[in-house]
TrEMBL record:
<dbReference type="GO" id="GO:0005886">
    <property type="term" value="C:plasma membrane"/>
</dbReference>
<feature type="transmembrane region" description="Helical">
    <location>
        <begin position="242"/>
        <end position="261"/>
    </location>
</feature>
<feature type="transmembrane region" description="Helical">
    <location>
        <begin position="12"/>
        <end position="31"/>
    </location>
</feature>
<keyword id="KW-0813">Transport</keyword>
<dbReference type="InterPro" id="IPR050901">
    <property type="entry name" value="BP-dep_ABC_trans_perm"/>
</dbReference>
<feature type="transmembrane region" description="Helical">
    <location>
        <begin position="138"/>
        <end position="161"/>
    </location>
</feature>
<feature type="transmembrane region" description="Helical">
    <location>
        <begin position="69"/>
        <end position="93"/>
    </location>
</feature>
<keyword id="KW-0472">Membrane</keyword>
<dbReference type="InterPro" id="IPR035906">
    <property type="entry name" value="MetI-like_sf"/>
</dbReference>
<feature type="domain" description="ABC transmembrane type-1">
    <location>
        <begin position="70"/>
        <end position="261"/>
    </location>
</feature>
<protein>
    <recommendedName>
        <fullName>ABC transmembrane type-1 domain-containing protein</fullName>
    </recommendedName>
</protein>
<keyword id="KW-0812">Transmembrane</keyword>
<dbReference type="InterPro" id="IPR000515">
    <property type="entry name" value="MetI-like"/>
</dbReference>
<dbReference type="Pfam" id="PF00528">
    <property type="entry name" value="BPD_transp_1"/>
</dbReference>
<feature type="transmembrane region" description="Helical">
    <location>
        <begin position="105"/>
        <end position="126"/>
    </location>
</feature>
<keyword id="KW-1003">Cell membrane</keyword>
<dbReference type="GO" id="GO:0055085">
    <property type="term" value="P:transmembrane transport"/>
</dbReference>
């Protein structure tokens, strides 16, 4: 009994340490963002600001570009997520429920695409969109992010659909629903946890994506927030007060979405991983 208690206490201690290690960079960035420039570069280092200020956030928006970067990220990530969920749902349902020739081979291709490093697909995507005159166009980045993260959404949704009872779908078809009515009226409401999990994961990946966003959108007014933040450091200066403020604002949507939908994320991912 004592050995079991010691083991549980040790597990809790490790979990707490991992949580603290994960949270510390975010807390440090926030504390840095409300310090004055002198405090940031003072020695010895002060963890907590003596006079907290929001002037860094004011200066960030007064520069004029950050608000545009933020809007661009929402446009690209939101549009890519919607497109991925629509196409991914139909593809995942086909893999999960419909028998057709070459199904296993296509599933292996989807799995293989999950293993591709994004840097490997950037050059061909750039050449394709350049030939289509879509450089510095939202459409190119939305389609690029869709190509990058659609396989992941298909895999999550396919495994989730396989956990749902097929007799409900059969009953809907017998009652007169066609396949599309059955998917959108019966299957999708039942698949809400899986859809939210797939949608949030693809949104976060799209929001944080850097390389393709840098290559396809070179105009300043078209840049996403991640690319915009990377351009703040100058040749001889590193404005930590602006960078930390920008990063804090950039991660707020991700944190809020995770907190609001964490129940659906956990149930969607765990249900989708228990049955093939």
């Amino acid at each position: 009994m004592n050995k079991l208690k010691i083991q549980k206490s040790f597990n809790y201690l490790i979990a707490i340490l991992l949580v603290l290690l994960s949270i510390f960079p975010i807390v440090w960035l926030f504390l840095t963002s409300i310090k004055s420039t002198n405090e940031i570069y003072s020695w010895p280092v002060k963890i907590f600001p003596s006079q907290p200020t929001i002037q860094n956030y004011v200066n960030l928006f007064q520069m004029g570009s950050f608000g545009r970067y933020y809007l661009n990220s929402f446009i690209v990530s939101g549009s890519a997520t919607i497109l991925i969920l629509i196409t991914g749902t139909l593809a995942a349902y086909s893999f999960a429920r419909i028998q057709f020739r070459g199904k296993r081979s296509l599933m292996m291709i989807v799995l293989a695409l999950l293993l591709f490093p994004p840097v490997a697909v950037v050059p061909p995507l750039f050449l394709i969109f350049r030939n289509l005159n879509l450089i510095n166009n939202y459409i190119s980045l939305i389609l690029g992010h869709t190509a990058l993260y659609l396989p992941l959404a298909i895999w999550i949704l396919m495994n989730y659909f396989r956990t749902l009872p097929k007799n409900i779908e059969d009953s809907a078809l017998i009652d007169g629903c066609n396949t599309f009515q059955m998917i959108f009226k019966i299957l999708l409401p039942m698949s809400l946890p899986g859809l939210i999990a797939a949608g949030l994961i693809t949104f976060v990946f799209s929001w944080n994506e850097f390389l393709l966003s840098l290559v396809l959108l070179s105009k300043n007014e078209m840049r996403t927030v991640v690319v915009g933040i990377s351009l703040y450091p100058g040749e001889y200066s590193f404005p930590w007060e602006l960078i930390s403020s920008a990063i804090v604002l950039a991660i707020i949507p991700i944190i809020l979405l995770t907190l609001v939908f964490q129940k659906y994320i956990i149930s969607g991912l765990t249900a989708g991983s228990t049955k093939y």
